[in-house]
Amino acid sequence: MKFVPRLILFLAIPAVLFLLPWWTLVAATTDESGPLFWLGSALFLLGFACLPAAMYLGHGPVQSDAASIVGDTLLGVMWVLFSWSVLGNLARAGLTVAGVNDPARSRIVAAGVLAAATVLVVWGVIEARRVPRVRTVDVAIPGLGSALDGLRVVVVTDTHYAALNRLRWSERVVEVVNAQRPDIACHAGDLADGSVAKRHAQVDPLGKVEAELGRFYITGNHEYFGDAQGWIEHMAALGWQPLHNQHEVVRRGDDRLVIAGIDDPTGIGLTGHGPDLPAALAGADPDVPVVLLAHQPRQVAEAAAAGVALQISGHTHGGQIWPFHYLVRLEQPVVAGLSRHGERTQLYTSRGTGFWGPQLRVFAPSEITVLILRAESATG
What we know:
With about 375 residues, the protein is α/β, with parallel strands linked by helices. The protein is built from 11 helices and 12 strands.
């Protein structure tokens, strides 16, 4: 009985995404008649049929990479068209007040929407597929010893290696990471979409990341849509330390720092998985500051209660395609950047290094993050 409501929802979302752009670009500009109306309507109808079919074939039981690329790309393009159709129809009201009548009013709106969407889709593809820019942030850590002042923690997250073969991109990301001279390297989850067998070639360059004090990895939610345990084992084979509700202590001289990691909440349904912060911190010296890897920013509530100094998260992609960040903000406390929670906990939320699904990033650039940890006395 649950199948019918899910099917309705599965078709309703594409219907909304296609209906408003169809009306804005086709129906309103042609007076719903003539060959252009029928041709445009046929193209939108074809797209409407193609999107759910491609998403099902690409992300359902079949796991077709070709269908995934088609469906994801179409989803991204239609989100941009839908968003700018909303703005275009708001502009239509202004043109009405200004005394611009149809058909000129509708054609001005359609031309503006189409031009903006085209530019943003092209730009979004370039932004998504480029090697991310490096973002450097100083973070004051209470209790950090002087020997660890200036510690360089390089963060990649949400690489989402998937249907598009991004082997060369992966190699270049590693080159950029190593150029930052990391003391510690972290991958904060959503490593890949798919099995180890299908995606390991894109992931394997991460084995060449160099970090003197350690390389640490946690699971994101997307690992649990595939083979989380397989990815944990594969990253360990590449020389990364999976932090599966556990911690490690890094040392420089006589000073120490706890690097802890917890699973993504999506793993709760899998035996032996799911976030367990008490287990991750068990045995840790309470006088040593803690840096916690937790994929989702909303996990910071528990981190703050435990007195964690810094939580590093991803998951949000910074919204990835504007204005999706408004929807992300309904679920997560932060979309991107450094924020403070409680009396002593800071959270850094990365916009992500790769992208999920649509190969688009609009007003949400990807990043490789360098967090420079500072002793409070050094920052004052």
